Give the backbone structure.
Amino acid sequence: MKKRLLALLMALAMTLALAACGSAETETTTEETADTVTEDTTEGENEAEAEPEADADTEAEAETETVEPEDTEEDAVTETVVTRIGSLKGPTSIGLTEMMSWDSADYTFTMETDASALLTEMVSGELDIALIPANAAAIWNTKIDGGVTCIDVNTLGVLYVISADDSIASIEDLAGRTIYLPGQGTSPDYVLQYLLAQHDMSLDDVNVEYQSEATEVIAALTADPEGVGLLPQPSVTAALNKLEGFSIVLDLTEEWGAVSDTDLITGVTVVRTAFLEEHPEAVAQFLADHLTSTTAANEDVVATAQRMVDLGILESTAVAETAIPYCNVTCVTGQDMKDMVSAYLQVLYDLEPSSVGGTLPGDEFYYFG
């Protein structure tokens, strides 16, 4: 009995001892867990405090990036190119009249009565583009340092023979006549020489009286009503309004076509090669605008006639309206331009090499852009 009681007491003591150990372990675990939670929470708070510093740097960078585009926009601002255009007070200016009416800041315009004045301005760099006789363009190509480039044909044949004698019906009928024409060594002069040569004639078979400009031809015919005039449009129409009994007896475009497989060309447009290389976009824009302008000149004759009077090209809108359809205003570019001009210049070169400056321009003379 005593033994059984003693064993019972020992078992109870062991149970109490085990319970005490379990309680101590639980407290240790709880303390460790609490320490761990406290440590993790503290690290999280430190990281949270660090994040505003990172955001501040990011905002500073964002502010810097916001300023940069403004600087870039300022750097991107470029100066507008103003293209300076010169033309002669005659048919080559008709196709420009619409452009002149735009009052565009992209262009300035100058009109002269003599191609040599335009040449001087091109050489000095005062002009960028000029509308001139085709043979003059070839001559300029050798006279201007760096040369010029032909970019379009602006006017086809505009030459006519006028007379009070309606018996003149062919080139041969000009034999023995006194012919008044504007300018020695000009397009009218060379066209006349070519047509005479094609009919086995020369200047020796006629009496040529060179005048400085169309108005002087009209004055000479007034004084010599038996004389014959060779003039371009629109001067032809102006002359017929002043000279009683005179009429067109020969269309030299038709006469040219009868003896040549080339086109009779009056005017071409050239650009200083240096300007073309520096501002190709401006030249391309001019060609697009020139085409628009020439189309308007041909389609709205009344408005074009009024602009011609406003610009001092002619004195009368009635004369201008009559003349415009005879002026063959056009804008031919690219390969077609090159084919037409090179063939025409070849005819003049074969007739008289000095008429094109002594040599024919190469392919680099023509613009295909």
